[in-house]
Amino acid sequence: EGDLFTWGTSTEGALGLGKHMLSSNEPRRLIVSQMIQNIRQISCGPDCTVVLTDSGFCYCCGSNGFNKLGFGAKFPQLHGLQKVSFITQKVLAVSVAETFAAFLIEGG
């Protein structure tokens, strides 16, 4: 209950399984922080994944190309789920595309 599984192939780390496991033919449970609870939505793009929780926090993994996940050019890839900290309002919904991610925030 409440476990998060991914499988398939992603050379950019979108599966969230770490930098040494870029593909899996069978479902693999992600080891997620205790802070990531009550997942509301998962949005997957061609090379990244964003997880949204009921509390309005987002966690990302995969390609940060074009800085689409907001982690700066210093972090081209995110292996394992990383918290999006630049958004200070509660996130209500998220959508991921090839070169960008969109976040709907509370009050906006």
Automatic annotation (TrEMBL):
TM ranges are none
User: Repeat RCC: residue ranges?
Assistant: 2-55
Keyword hit for Repeat: yes
Q: Which PROSITE patterns match?
A: RCC1_3 (PS50012)
| InterPro entries tied to this protein | RCC1/BLIP-II (IPR009091), Reg_chr_condens (IPR000408), Signaling_Regulatory_Domain (IPR051625)
Pfam families per the UniProt record, alphabetical: RCC1
| UniProt keyword annotations, A-Z | Repeat
Question: What is the recorded name of this protein?
Answer: Secretion-regulating guanine nucleotide exchange factor
